[in-house]
Design a protein that fits this description.
It contains 5 helices and 13 strands. With 357 residues, it is an alpha+beta fold.
């Protein structure tokens, strides 16, 4: 101590006073403030040894961070987009093949229920849940029952996939696909006409005025047939021009079609908007007596001229697969959560690998 009782500094008068700028930061506590309150630029993780460099402008730092995150999101989006498209296409093909498909109506054989240029959707699942009903409007493949000269479809899986893709965008045209109304089920006795000029099923007359084309009679051609097992008797709603089961009575099956040829039930008109509506079963097919068996009749035509009928009928123009955004839209709706889940699973797997390493 000095003589005046004050403590002397630990350095001699000639020793220089340490500069505060040369002080070292204590790890975890930051640096000792320098003159004017400045801190060591290398402390607290800043600078070359502390990690990311910082600018004097906080707004610029935030902008740079947002830009990097935005860039990562854009790159991630473009990486995920091909996966999303592929998943959506696969789902759309599955929906079109097994659930819902659109068709275009090119002829007048189902007027006025279905008009030329109408687009309808068919339900391909319904007949896995319930049997075919009388009065259903069905789309079916006429190959082997009405169209015998058509070469069989290719069994090549790639050819089938190509056809499905073309059908997805509505550019395929299968000439063997038809749309008609189911009148008789397996075992039914279907005949025309009774004393009132009506078509009868199991002896029960059908009141068809609600769906027949105005001015049409139920049939100008007389017929009487018992529908064989596993087959259907079908007719168009515009009887005067519809080339239906009546025009194929000379074919094997007596004009009937196999149930296995049915692709699905037409249940709604989707285009044009002015024609939108559901295709319900007419009330006349709900008569309980229709289910009563009738042993009368036989598996043969009863009078009339098939040639005369064919002369009055149209060319039997088939329906055509139509463009519909529904399968693709449903495909993308289903693809989004699937893609998100696989992305999340991939991130979890990556995180686990990093923890192990």
């Amino acid at each position: 101590m000095n003589g005046d009782g004050s403590a002397s500094p630990p350095w001699g008068p000639a020793d220089p006073v340490p500069d505060l700028a040369d002080t070292q930061a204590i790890p975890g506590l930051g640096s000792i403030p320098g003159p004017n309150g400045a801190r060591d630029p290398g402390a607290d993780g800043a600078g070359p040894e502390g990690g990311a460099e910082s600018t004097d402008d906080p707004a610029a730092d935030a902008k740079g961070g947002n830009s990097r995150r935005s860039g990562k999101r854009r790159r991630s989006f473009w990486r995920e987009l091909p996966v999303l498209v592929v998943v959506a296409l696969v789902l759309a093909l599955l929906i079109k093949s097994f659930a819902i498909q659109a068709f275009f109506i090119p002829s007048a054989s189902m007027e006025n229920t279905l008009e030329i240029n109408d687009r309808v959707l068919i339900n391909k699942i319904v007949y896995h849940l319930r049997p075919i009903h009388r009065g259903d409007i069905i789309v079916f493949d006429g190959s082997g029952s009405w169209d015998f000269d058509t070469p069989p479809a290719s069994s090549n899986i790639f050819s089938k996939a190509g056809d499905e893709l073309k059908g997805l965008v509505g550019i395929s045209q299968d000439p063997n696909i038809y749309i008609k109304r189911v009148i008789g089920l397996p075992g039914d006795h279907v005949a025309c006409c009774n004393a009132a000029g009506q078509v009868t099923v199991n002896g029960v007359p059908l009141s068809e005025s609600s769906y027949l084309y105005p001015g049409n009679q139920p049939s100008a051609q007389k017929f009487s047939i018992t529908v064989p097992a596993g087959r259907l008797w079908v007719m168009g709603d515009n009887r005067r021009v519809s080339y239906d089961s009546r025009g194929h009575m000379g074919d094997p099956g007596g004009g009937t079609i196999p149930e296995s040829a049915v692709l699905g039930r037409a249940f709604v008109i989707i285009w044009p908007p002015s024609r939108w509506g559901f295709l319900n079963i007419p009330a006349t097919f709900e008569q309980p007596k229709l289910n009563a068996s009738n042993a009368a009749g036989g598996n043969a035509a009863a009078g009339g001229s098939t040639a005369a009928l064919e002369a009055a009928l149209d060319t039997g123009s088939p329906v055509r697969p139509a463009t519909s955004p529904l399968p693709l839209a449903l495909g993308f709706v289903g693809a989004v959560p699937i893609t998100w889940l696989q992305r999340k699973a991939r991130r979890r797997l990556k995180s686990r690998r990093e923890r192990r390493s």
